[in-house]
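Journal club side-thread
Mid-discussion, someone asked how the predicted structure for our own chain would compare to the paper's figures. Pasting it here so we can look after the session.
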Amino acid sequence: MAKSSDELSNFSYNGVDRRGQKVSGSIRGKNAASVKLLLRKQGINVSQVTKKSDPINIPFLNGKKKITSLEVSIFVRQLATMMKAGVPLVQSFDIVADGLDNESMKEVVLGIKLEIEGGSNFANALQKYPALFDKLFVSLVASGEQSGALETMLDRIAVYKEKSEALRSKIKKALKYPISVIVVAVIVTIILLVKVVPVFQNLFQGFGAQLPAFTQMVINMSNWVQTKGWILIFVFAGIYVAFSEARKRSPAFVNFLDRTYLKLPVFGNIIYMAVVARYSRTLATTFAAGVPLIEALTSCADASGNVVYQEAILRIRDEVASGQQLNFSMKSSNLFPAMAVQMVSIGEESGKLDAMLDKVATHFESEVDNAVDGLTSMMEPMIMAILGVLVGGLIIAMYLPIFQMGNAV
């Protein structure tokens, strides 16, 4: 596919700077003429400009560190702070890039800077990195540029990204904590079966008496793990790969998972409140930025993170487009809490919909935080009990024959 005239390409150059020293490097531009003009503005007398083919950028193969959503959030906050302090946009990129430890993120920031220096606007420059800056992010930046209030818009985006990142970290905490403990329990059990049980097994062979059923069962488990334990590794690896591929390739499977998540005990309620908080935060941010409500709802559907709510929000969008009030459409979906519907109704009547949505988002973010803390406190004794049963059960099984010998004596 041919490149459009607005897309920038990589060029290498050789020349002489103002001090008469030879310089060379690479730069992005629309064509060789625009690159020469840009370099002359920087005080470089160009002798040669050559177009380069765009390299295939695969961070894993290139040994580069992955860029996290938290790093993107920090980048936006730093950029917003610089611009509110009166620092020009291009200079802000240089300052932010100097403080970054992740070379991959630094390359992205400097790449955006070069795009802007080459004549592109900020929103178009962000579109070159869709994996880091989604459509919502780009549309908000474009709205800020068009209205002439980019620094204010960046501050709103920074708040939105920070709140979203905090919410995401809470959900991960709620899900990862029990999973990590289960993994530790399995590892401890396997170590006991492979290293400890065989020692007792050798000791029991000299008893010349029948072992208790519980002890024999544990010894059989130990023998199986030592001889055929690799089967478990392949089974779990296969399940993990199949699960990951199904999530990537099967919309029906993703739909099933999202619906199942909402029905889970305890966890389902946390996910439910998180989705409502994310919906409210996204709609508040986009609507306050001057995005029309219909377009804002489309962005909310994409950012909801759950297929059930994505479909519901798109239906709400269609109903609002046909003249229905937002609070009525939300209520008829039967997916939003009464408190959120009532606050939206007040916001529509008072003309302060963005402020009311912001309050709803803050409330449910706080509810998620409290629920995660409560879940953690509740699960700690349960986890200790599970570990005690696993480890204690194995120890009892190994000492039962010794106790029987003591009773016999």
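Post-session note: The chain has a mean pLDDT of 80.
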